[in-house]
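Researcher: Quick sanity check before group meeting.
Model: Go ahead. Protein one:
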Amino acid sequence: MQDVITGDAAVIDALSAFCAGEGAVYHKADQYGNASHWFRLTGTDKVVPAAKVLKKAAARLIMISSYDRSGGLTGFEPELCYHFEVPGVIYSFTVALDAKNPAVPSITPLFANADWHERELRELLNIKVDGHPNPNRLFLDETLDAGKLRSAVPLSVAMNGANSTDLWETILGAKEKQA
């Protein structure tokens, strides 16, 4: 591993200002020298300001992902992870959401490609994305409960491409029960 981790010092300092606590900022480089910087934001109110810092640095949004902090043990405790690339360096920030009312502000006005990511969060996990310019569903019928896939389909089924028939049978079965 290299001794000096590359990255834009101004971006690192600006994102670090939205973090608090030990381990909230983490820097690493892999065996090939690819640098990445991780930031745990103190709250959802820091998502748009952090995205603005990255927009100003000409970052490219790579992906927004969600995971369950509880590991499925105590109910759904969502956390979002935003991944950006500023030529050659990855900047990621995470933010924990309220388990009872998961909501996050939209960054689609800053990064147009956040549109689908944020709509998936709403559709599949029932995470409210405040201020999204087009909150329509992408894939699932509007009659299905929002976030249905969070509880209806085991992760092993959802992740196994060979079982996509099982996935859709579960979704359609839930819809038939509602009718």
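Researcher: Fine. The other one?
Model: Protein two, sequence then structure:
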Amino acid sequence: MIHHELLTLFNTIQRLEASEEELICTLFKPAFLKKNEFFLQEGKFNNQIAFLRKGMIRYFVYKKGEESTLEFTKEGEFIGEYQSFSNRKQSIQNLQAIEDCELLVISYVDLQHFFDNSKNGNLIGRLIIEHRFNRMISQLLSIYMHTPEERYKYFVANYRDLLQRIPQYLLASYIGVQPQSLSRIRKRIAKEIS
């Protein structure tokens, strides 16, 4: 069943009624992105959010003409530019597939319908947004409080399973260095370990 992971996630947050599960299966529509395709580009309005069933998405902005990676999102998580989505403003972020992706997409209008017609919809929505907010704050604080080497160590410690899935130049962009600097950081860490 295509909605199994999504329903499982929602039911771990709050036990759903059968009618709510049926509504979710109706409102969240399957979609696909090929590697390098965009879910959202800056300057556009984010009119939908998605549950990522398979694949990986990166969030990035242009900073001084260069791409600066903010985040990676993998299967089992939601994607969307929430400021654009909730405030109905143009996005300043880009969301791009770095692998082929399978999604379950819901539009802004359909999400409001879910909130209005589901006993547990608002609670689930709030808890998901709180999770996203906390994650974004942690990343923002890390940019200001940690060196690139500390950011890399944190990434390895917490997201080791993603290291083989993310190209090194994107990982370098995420920790805020050029790819050759990331190579030096990795060599230094390898020497510390051995």
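Researcher: One line on it for the slide.
Model: The chain has two domains: 4-145, 146-194.
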